[in-house]
Fold this sequence. Notes:
The structure holds two protein chains of two kinds. By secondary structure, chain A is mainly beta. Chain A has strands at about 5, 10-15, 20-25, 30-35, 45-50, 55, 65-70, 75-80, 90-95, 100-105, 105-110. Chain A is built from no helices and eleven strands. The N and C termini of chain B lie far apart (about 40 Å).
Amino acid sequence: EPEVTQTPSHQVTQMGQEVILRCVPISNHLYFYWYRQILGQKVEFLVSFYNNEISEKSEIFDDQFSVERPDGSNFTLKIRSTKLEDSAMYFCASRLGTRGYTFGSGTRLTVV
Amino acid sequence: AQSVSQHNHHVILSEAASLELGCNYSYGGTVNLFWYVQYPGQHLQLLLKYFSGDPLVKGIKGFEAEFIKSKFSFNLRKPSVQWSDTAEYFCAVIADTGGFKTIFGAGTRLFVKA
């Protein structure tokens, strides 16, 4: 079964550093998403992306965050200057239609 | 705005007990409903999903859920839990608006005593 692949599985970064989380969505999917789960909390929507532009973003997704689909296969989330509170599990998801909504296995980001 | 409510934050059961986790959503239009499970330290795993048709949906690991449109509910059930069902369970909805983002409930932590 097709999978959404996320790398790395765990990333440790120093506060203030830039970090890029990478995702390879399922190849024929058209809609892409990032979600965040702070330890012990629920999964929160960050951003949706379609046709090379952001279609919706949450309040969490401020100017420190950006997304990009640089080469037609990868979908990246960049955090420009990480803060301690950015420590979380970040999930990428993609879909063709709602029936094909698939989550990746996540990247655990630890900001120290 | 759409939202998902899970009534129980923590549930403790003994093995072989029956399980029912409540989930209600607030949205009057067409919704797609999901239950995900997250084992300790692991990622989200889809248990089951409802799009249309038979409101009683069967998923993996013996779980099932019933969509009751009039009650805006999608409760998860399992007749006999096992110790290995210890995990956190998230109800989620995709509404046909707002970019089709998934909205998650706060989760229910289930602990099954051996």
